[in-house]
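Input.
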Amino acid sequence: WLKVKAEEGTNPRIIGPSDGLHHWVVIGNEDNLGVGFYYDHGAVLVQDPNPPILGEWEHYAVILDRVVGQASIYRDATLVSSGSFTDDLPLESWIFGHQGDVNNHGDSLNGLLDDIRIYNRLLEFADVVELAAIPEPSASIMLFLLIFQSLVQRPTKWRVVKKCVVNG
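Output.
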C-alpha cells in the first residue's frame, strides 16, 4: 500500500539498492508518471501512466520476471503497465522510501508505505486481486527504513536501520 502525501522530488524512491546508481521502483514525478521501474537514466520505463492520487491509499503490485525479462505494474488490481526489463539485480542492501545515500534526502518518498511483501515466486493475477482486496490501512503508519541483504538470497534477513516518519 502507498499513500503519497505530497509530490516532491524528481523520482521519489519506493525501493532500491543502497548503491544509489540503480533506482528500481520509483514514482515518476519527473515525467508526471506513477509507480514503476526506472533505470539507466530513463532508457527503460515500465511505469503507471498516471501519478498516485495524493492523500489516498492505493494498492500496488510490482512483478518482475527475470527469466523472461518482463515487468508488470498493477494498481488496485488493474494492470497499468508492462514491458521489458533487463537490469541486473544488484547484490547489496536495499532501502525503502529513500534513495541509496541515507544522508541525502532528495528524492525521498513523502508518504507512507504499508504491508510491503517480497515473494520468491511470481504472483499470478489471482494473487494480485487477493492482495488488493485487503482493507486499506486506517491508522497513521510509521515507516521503518528497512534494508535487506539481497533479493537473490532468502528475503528473511531484514534489519531495521532507522525508524522514522517520512516527512510526517
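The first strand starts at residue 2 and ends at 4.
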